[in-house]
Amino acid sequence: MRQTRPVLITAATALLALTACGNFDLDMRSATNGFSTADAARQPSADRPKADARGIITYPDYQVVVARGGDTVQTVAERLGLNPVELARHNALTPDTTLRGGEVLALPRKVDAGEDIAVTTLAESAITRAENGDDAPEPAARADGPQPTQHRVERGETAFQIARLYSVSPRALADWNGLNPEMEVREGQVLMIPVAAQLERAQEEEPVTPPGSGSPTPPPPSASTPMPEPEPPAEVADRQAEESRPPSPQLEQERTEPATTTNFAMPVDGRIIRAYAPGRNDGIGIAASAGTNVRAAQAGTVAAVTKTTTGVNILVLSHADNLLTVYANIDTLAVEKGARVTRGQSIAKVAAGDPSFLHFEVRNGQDSVDPMRYLQ
Question: Residue 149 in contact with residue 166, Cβ under 8 Å?
Fold first, then answer.
């Protein structure tokens, strides 16, 4: 006991002495030891780009996927059509690893989004917004801006060290990669390094005149320049204006061309209980009893038959003039992908619900339009 006290006093004295020194930093990040975070504080990072409906963010040279709550590496691989073992090995994980919602995985190779997948993705995204009642914008399929650097974590590295290495904030590094609150990284993990925010100038820079030089002096008027013609009298000016005035258009001969729209049949008979609201509800909800036949609004081809992540059935028909119709909250599907259907043909039944209704959309290419413009 007698020997312990002097040791403690000596340690405390040393700590106080070090603290008194102006250059001591308990976090070992002083301006002189190479670990300063000042650069990171001066370089704000942009927000991570939005993922598409499958969770994919696409860059020119690579892709990453943002996991959903409850995902495993296996379920992510199955959703994207990848080999689970290959995806797991590329991210230093195992196929049965449970992922956090928002966690980012690097894809070992690019996933091709064909036409069928694109149609299904659009439909799933719209139905999900309608179910949740949110007003999230359409997710971007391809990220804009510069491509982030990828960093594979080496043994012993921490998120803070990696952030300092690239002069980004640890918070931005965590947000871009979906790290947990403890900022844990693992050996072999592939991280995206946040890109700097693009700061817009409020206005163009004005040329600066050196002090003492004054404003540029305009050139004096030339003595050889003739004097301007005198203004004509008022009555002459009025006559000249009348002569130069173009003839009045014959309004009775002009006709507004009627809007060319394709008339669609109502897919079910019922009242509209959910109105079209772009960005929140990309279609309409038509009240109908469970088991009611759902009819094809127009002749076309079955482009996709799929389900949302919550198990809602979706059927997409492709029509002429680049139009699509989307039917959801259905069951007992009577057609398969690739089948030709006729206008009014029964394609499914309204699923049970409280209330039961059909979700119906019309899309012109990738853009949703108000179905009431097309329905008779």
Answer: yes
Domains for the chain: give ranges and CATH numbers.
56-192 (no CATH), 272-373 (2.70.70.10)
Q: 321 and 137 in contact (C-beta within 8 Å)? A: no
Element (H, E) at 367: strand 367-369
CA distances from 370 to 276, 296, 375 (A): 6, 17, 9
Q: What is the mean pLDDT of residues 233-252?
A: 55
Q: Residue 95: what residue type?
A: P
Length of the chain equals 376
Question: What type of residue is 376?
Answer: Q
The angle at the Cα of 316, spanning 311 to 322, to the nearest 5 degrees, equals 150
| Phi, psi dihedrals of residue 272, rounded to the nearest 5° | -80, 120
Taking the C-alpha atoms of residue 372 and residue 350, their distance in angstroms, rounded to an integer, is 20
Distance CA 363, CA 300 (A): 14
Instruction: Report how far Cα 288 is from the mean position of its chain's Cα atoms.
Output: 34
Place of tokens 């300092």: 164
Q: pLDDT tens digits for 51-77? A: 887 889 998 889 999 999 889 999 998
DSSP H/E element including 73: helix 73-80
* Helix, strand, coil in percent for the chain, rounding step 5: 25, 20, 55
Find, among 317, 295, 276, 293, the residue nearest to 123 by Cα. Answer: 317
Q: How far apart are CA 226 and CA 40, in angstroms?
A: 64
**Predicted pLDDT of residue 178:** 93
Three-state SS at 306 = strand
Structure pTM? 0.44
